Amino acid sequence: MLSRRLFYKALHRLMCAAVVSLGLYSAGAAAQQNGVTLYGIIDIGLQYDHVRQEAFSGGLPQGLINQSFLGVANGVQSGSRFGFRGNENLGGGLGVNFVLEGGFNPADGTSAQGGRLFGRQSTLGMTLRDVGRLDLGRQINLASNYLLSIDPFQEGFGQANIGSSFGSANTTRYGNMLLLQLTPVSGLTLGAGYSFSTGLSAIYAGEKGCLYAQSCPGTSGGYNFIANQNMRAITLGAQYKRGPLDLVVTYDKIYGDASQPNSSVRPSFWVLGGAYDFKVLKLSLATGQAIDGFASGQAQGTGATSATVLTSVSWTPGVVLFLPNARAYSYFVGVTAPLTSEVTLLASWQMMQPQGFLSSDAQLNTQQILSAALTQKLSVRTNLYTYASYAQNFAMINTAESFTFGVGIRHQF
Q1: 104-144: pLDDT as tens digits
Q2: 409 CB-contact burial (10 Å; exposed 0-12 / middle 13-18 / buried 19+)
Q3: What CA–CA distance (Å, rounded) separates 331 from 351?
């Protein structure tokens, strides 16, 4: 009788263990099926910046401004971030996917992108195998997406990246966007997106009368009930990647808040780029134009301080400048060269040249930037980097110079 009682007790425990194990297995299988992944990047290092510029007020020189910075910088090679991405297979080649990604500053623990929880990307979308995908939410525009593979610096390293001269490729993010991307043939991607309210800030400069007096009305992006009282945007692009060849063309057009003065102008930006991997090095070329305004350019350095001399007395990065009849051409040459299996050299030259009435303005001049970096792999997920970049007539402001140098470490998880 005792042995039978012990037998049933042991059997009961075994069944309980089996049920618990089955539950854990089912939960694991469900998680695997949903494909939810936690990922991120932590990038931090030391940086030195030196800037100098002739200050102007009312069009008259006011003396030389000279300033240096030395300290911790974050998000230099890649913006520090954490995120969740997932997908679910619905069958028949149809799937659902999402990305929730937030930026942060590991040097002080604060959030990036204006304190947004998932300011880098927050999208929900659907994919259809061999056809394409449709995504809704906040995400980068097609210029930033497709030119990422053209730029040796992959839109990192502050003023070194392609976004310093091609503002539409400055990791520009549009909120409230509907983005469709199709893959009609192998290697070709066609994209079209519309943002109902970008969330970007704006400066409506009119005929430039307020530009140097720093009195242009600046507006922050919101989401207003009346459609044309939002800053809206169209983003178009095509990318062809086949073997060592990578070709890109993009176009963006911005529509201002109709309730603001001087908002009828519509800045537009086109970029044509390409790259070819010769194995011993990858050569990148790009050209483009900004018309009737400028998208947010890079600040000198990156991830160091919230404000610097050059950004306080020239056009403010991080906004869209509406400036009728203003034009600028941009050019870019980049090289990516693997020196060893662990060490890679990145280098680029870029130029932004004012055109039209801007070319005759004594306070403006052609921007040129020379940059180089070395990255060294320590493992699959961790690397060291060192970089230097020099800008002449930064942001096309005459006499503005910026030099930045730094070292750092990046870890991906």
Answers
A1: 999 999 999 989 999 999 999 999 999 999 999 999 999 99
A2: middle
A3: 5
Which amino acid, residue 276?
Y
95 C-beta neighbours (distance < 10 Å), count: 17
* Residue 157: alpha-carbon gap to chain centroid: 11
Alpha-carbon dihedral angle through residues 41, 177, 32, 118, given to the nearest 10 degrees: 40
Q: Would the pTM count as exceeding 0.70?
A: yes
Amino acid identity of 84? F
Cβ-based neighbours of 9, under 8 Å, separated by 6 or more: none
Query: Tokens 């549009």 map to which residue?
Result: 174
Distance of CA 151 to the CA centre of its chain: 12
Give me the domains of the chain, ranges plus CATH numbers: 53-412 (2.40.160.10)
- Secondary structure (3-state) at 189: strand
**pLDDT exceeds 80 at position 63:** no
Contact indicator for 336, 282 with CB cutoff of 8 Å: yes
